[in-house]
Structure formats: C-alpha cells, structure tokens
Amino acid sequence: MINPPVYDLRNPFPWYAHMRKHQPIWQEQASTWHVFRHDDVLRVLSDYEHFSSQRGEANDPNRPISSSLISMDPPRHRQLRTLVSQAFTPRAIANLTARIEEISNSLLDDFQGQTHLDIVESLTYPLPVIVIAELLGVPSDERDRFKMWSDAVIAGSRQLASGEVLSFEDAQMEMVQYFSQLVAERKKTPKADLISDLLRVKVDGESLSMAEILGFCVLLLVAGNETTTNLLSNALYTLHEIPSLWPYLAEQPDERLAAFVEEVLRFRAPIQHMYRTTTCDVELSGVPVPAGSRMVAWIGSANRDEAVYEQPETFQVNRKSRHLAFGHGIHFCLGAPLARLEAELALKQLLRRYTSIAIPDVDASEPVPTSLVYGFHKMEVQLTP
Ligand code: HEM
Fold first, then answer.
1. How far apart are CA 170 and CA 126, in angstroms?
2. 315: buried, middle or exposed (CB in 10 Å: 19+, 13-18, 0-12)?
3. Which residues of 359-383 are buried (b: 16+ CB within 10 A; e: fewer)?
4. Residue 195: which of 207, 206, 187, 203 has the closest Cα?
5. Cα–ligand 1 centroid distance for 226 (angstroms)
6. Separation of 329 CA from ligand 1 center, angstroms?
C-alpha cells in the first residue's frame, strides 16, 4: 500500500487523485465509506433507491434540516420539490437581476478607493446573504446573526465573540424560533416574498406543513450562503492565480463569464462532498457495501477524474464539460440559477471597475475550516483600478 499524501484543507486534490487511483471506494470505518471516482459519485448522488438522503426524523420542527428537501427521499421529496419549485422558479430568479446588480454595485461603492481589503468581508459574504434575506423577506441587518448560524451549521459549531460555543443544535433552534415568528406574521399579513408564497402554494389540495416551511427557510439560509460566497471567493482566487484571465474576461464579459464560472465550479467546487445512507446491501463498481452504511460522495474528486476530463488538474476557461458541483438527479441544486447569476453579475462589475486582482500574502488567507466546504473565511486582496 502506498501512503496517501496528507489531506490538506487548502489543497485536498492530490489526496483525491491518490484515492481515485488506489482506493476509489474506501471503507474508513466499519460503516463509513468514501467514494472518489466520477461514475461512482454520480451513482451515489442520483440512485435514491439504494442511497437515501434521509437523516433523522422528518417533520420535526426542532430539526428543520431533517425536514427539508435535501434530507428527503421520494415520494415526499417529489411532492415537496414540486411545491417549493412553484415559489422558487427560474423566472422568479431571473427577475432578481436588477436587484442583485444594485446590491453588488452598492457593496462595491462602499469599498471604492480602498485597494487592500478582505474581499470576503466586503463582497463575497454579504452579497448572497442580502439576496437570500430579501427573497425570504427578512431584514438584511440581521446578517451577522445569519452568518453565525450558517457557520455553526456548516462547521458543526461556532465560537462566539464572548468565548461561548454555539452548537449545531442550538443554531438550528435559534433559526427555528426566528423563522417561526416570521412565518406567523406572514400567515396573518402576506407580503410579496418567498415565505408568503410558500404559505400559499398547493399541490393536489395539499400545502406545506409548518415544519416543512421552517425546514426550507433554514435550508435556503444555509445552502444559499456559504456556497455562493465560496463560488465567488474561489473565482477571485483563480483570477489571482492566473492573471491573464482578468483582461481576457474583461474584454467580452457577456460571452466569457458563464464558461469561466462553470470551470470554477468544476475546479474548486464550493461543496466538496455530500452524504447518503445505503438502504440495502449494494454493489458499487463490484464492491459490496452493506445496508445502513454512511456514504461520503466526493464531488471535489469526481470533478477532477481523469476518466472524464482531459487534463483535469488544469484550469481551462473554455472547457465545455459538465461537473457535479450542484449535484445530480432529483436533488440537483434548486439554487443553481441564482448562484450563477450572483457570481456573474458581481464579477462583471469588478471587471468593469478594476484591471487586476492579487492576493499579496496567500498564507494569510483563511480556508473554511471543514472538508465539506472549499473556500475562504478571509481573503485579503489587492485591487488595481
Ligand atoms: C441542493 C450545491 C447554491 C438551494 C444542492 C446540492 C448541491 C448544492 C451539491 C445537492 C445536494 C444533494 O445531492 O444531496 C450548491 C452550490 C451552490 C449552491 C455549489 C453555490 C455555488 C444554492 C443557492 C440556493 C440553494 C443559492 C438557494 C437559494 C439548494 C436546495 C437544494 C440544494 C434547496 C436541495 C434540492 C433537493 O434536495 O431537491 N446544492 N448550492 N443552493 N441547493 Fe444548492
């Protein structure tokens, strides 16, 4: 057995390459299995009959994520997805274009004249939070609380300024309390926002339960924030790493940005893995995996599989291949059009105002401290007007 390269949060890719080659289906503990090759990851993500997304008790208002789409299997998943898709349509998202432009313009105005700044704090974090907050109809000045909650849910816990630790469970409880109040208000007085729409939609005479509405709000807050933040941060990191890309994109942003964003999603996927549980004994590429096993499907590795991509470890701005950054199959990311739109609009405005970006001290940037998410909590950049 060859010793694998040490797993490195900033650069997990050599470890993935090793695992794809030597242990593509790796049993880490008695009941935890990791999957690294593209075709296996695709199967684990999309074969819901053998690989279940369910975790915990559904319909428990105190465990909103267990009651959300992402933790559900058919047939309920299908019904719930049809319901929320009525409120969260691609057209509703496209209608947000002007507002997203306004928000990102005003964030850019706020740091105009400043050439050294933490771009996560100034742009890539606040943009998605403000957009989600507006979609849900919650005041955007609550965004520090949102950040604290989504950090705690993503990382499992979060240390507060007071030194206290906010646990995953407490963060969920606080979100539930917050949204319960908001949902009750909208029930009495509907407004033009997503929560009011969610209260209204019906399929076959059936509407969403309170636990499901709360679950969806919490899911959007968590799924829509950290992910989009890191898509944008990873795009900017790539522009630092390959300086020729800035003038190339600035020349024809409308034609070139979409493909660039897709390649960032492949190359540095914001979500590096997803979980499933086997529903029965399964064979995966000839390997028997027992029922009840926890599966870790490594999207970040699948996106660099040499069996699917030519020169997978090279960033190719014109690569027209698909990737698994938004998942695959029935759970394919509902927010993908929104994430793409936010990233493209913000990048376009940066390209218009500046001529280059650099990260003077890469070691001072802080990676998100979990293998689930690839991105940055802090990234000091230098922008040249
Ligand atoms: C599902 C990634 C942005 C809402 C997913 C899944 C992935 C993903 C990998 C599939 C999960 C699975 O198979 O278990 C991302 C990435 C994003 C992003 C990389 C940004 C770059 C967003 C945004 C929203 C959102 C902005 C909403 C505002 C959702 C929802 C699901 C989901 C609701 C669950 C869909 C279902 O289970 O049917 N996302 N996401 N995501 N995402 Fe995203």
1. 23
2. middle
3. beeeeebebbeeebbbbbbebbbbb
4. 187
5. 11
6. 12
What is the average pLDDT score of the chain? Answer: 90
Tens of pLDDT, residue by residue over 317-344, are 999 779 999 999 999 999 999 999 999 9
Residue range 161-177, pLDDT digits in tens: 677 777 878 888 888 88
Residue 71, judged by CB atoms within 10 A of its CB (0-12, 13-18, 19+), counts as: buried
* Size (the chain), residues: 385
Residue whose CA is at the smallest distance from ligand 1 atom 25: 335
* CB 325 near ligand 1, within 6 Å: yes
**Rama region for 48: left / alpha / beta (φ>0; ψ in -120 to 50; rest):** alpha
Alpha-helical regions (H) of 138-252 = 143-155, 168-188, 194-200, 210-241, 245-251
Q: How far is CA 151 from CA 159, 221, 298, in A?
A: 10, 11, 21
Nearest CA residue ID for atom 28, ligand 1: 224
For residue 242, give the amino acid letter. I
Q: In whole angstroms, what is the distance from residue 275 CA to residue 33 CA?
A: 10
Residue closest by Cα to atom 36 of ligand 1: 331
Average pLDDT for 238-244: 98
Q: Where are the domains of the chain?
A: 13-384
The CATH code belonging to domain 13-384 is 1.10.630.10
Residue nearest atom 6 of ligand 1, based on CA coordinates = 333
- Helix axes of 253-267 and 210-241: crossing angle, nearest 10 degrees: 100
CA distance 180 to 187: 10
Q: Tell me the one-letter amino acid at 28.
A: E
Confirm if 72 and 316 have CB atoms less than 8 A apart: no
Residue 318's closest CA among 254, 244, 256, 266?
256
Q: Is 130 in the pocket of ligand 1 (CB under 6 A)?
A: no
Q: Quote the ligand 1 centre to 384 CA distance (angstroms).
A: 33
Residue with tokens 């890719």: 13
Q: Respond yes or no on whether the N-terminal peptide bond of residue 190 is cis (omega within 30° of 0).
A: no
